[in-house]
Amino acid sequence: MRDAFGRGGRRAGRLGRAALLSALVPALVAGPAGPAAAEVVVFTAQLLPSLETPPITNAEADAFGTAVVTLDVARDAGGAVTGATARFDVGLSRFPDGEVVNGAHVHQGAPGMPGPIVLSGGITAGNAVPVTGDTVFTRASLTVDPALASSILADPTGFYFNVHTNLNPDGAVRGQLSRSPAFEGLALGVFTDAARYGPGDPIQLKAFVGNFGGTPVTADVFAGFGLPADQGAALCGAAGDLPLFFVGAAGTGLECFSALALTPPPLLARSLTIPPFPLTPFTLFSGVVPPGTLPGTFFAFLGAAAPGTFPAGALKVDTQRFPVGP
Questions:
Q1: How far is CA 244 from CA 28, 33, 176, 297, in A?
Q2: Containing H/E element for 147?
């Protein structure tokens, strides 16, 4: 699919079956590119209760969220960080009614390990954020110690974002920081949970999307399900290619995801108009798992069907794992 996912009519990457199935990076994200006169660096984190230590198993076990941490960094002539400020943009969903956020912080710590708070969003019990449905909140102009900013820039995966609630005061959803990439116009969701979702089951894919461009942008959503390899042999041909069953507004169809192309172009599920930042919640897909497809395999693409749809520096997305649920 030459014009679907790339800038200026070029495809944004070549992914084979192995790359596709390994693309379980925890987060739907967006981020701006830093201007030449100042260094603006964006980090994102997919927030999940299963990443807490220990994992959350109570009424907030199905919650999820996205955090965008933007650092505005000043450096001296030698390149050393002399000052920095941070902004938190957080989207949360599927929390119990009546819940509140009473803390949102960056902690220092490796995956699966608890760590100290190193950067606070300034939320306390006195200014707690109610969580109702899909909730988005922002905390801006947070002063960051230069040494801390340097450490985050050097190794963002050594830090995690943690959201605290009344029910889970030590943390309800958590995710390691990841530096936002530089390419535009493609997000890929891969969901593999055969124990929960199979043919005939209703599913819904939701995500928080950010647009830093200052004007609305249009994105297209494509949704598909995995097929057994023998069913797609005639379509795909080459060994290792992945047959997909796509579901679109105009019907259904077979596609072949190979290392070289996605052919024929996938059926459009829907289009989105994404307003300027902050984060906006979207339901990318809602439907039933088709019969004959592989249990627990769901794919979603968020991209531009026409070159030049995304203004420079607007929508930035990485390969993601999207939360899926009934």
A1: 22, 33, 31, 10
A2: helix 146-154
Domain end among 147, 163, 179: 179
Residues 203 and 173 both lie in one domain:
no
Nearest residue to 204 via CA among 63, 48, 320, 326? 326
Q: Which tokens belong to 174?
A: 């958590």
Whole-number Å distance between alpha carbons of 174 and 187: 21
226 part of a folded domain: yes
Is there a domain that residue 34 lies in? Answer: no
pLDDT digits over 190-217, tens only?
A: 555 555 677 888 887 778 877 766 777 7
Task: Tell whether 108 is covered by a domain.
Answer: yes
* pTM (predicted TM-score): 0.74
Residue 274 included in any domain: yes
Indicate if the pLDDT at residue 231 is higher than 50: yes
Q: Map residue 122 onto helix, strand or coil.
A: coil
pLDDT surpasses 50 at 183: no
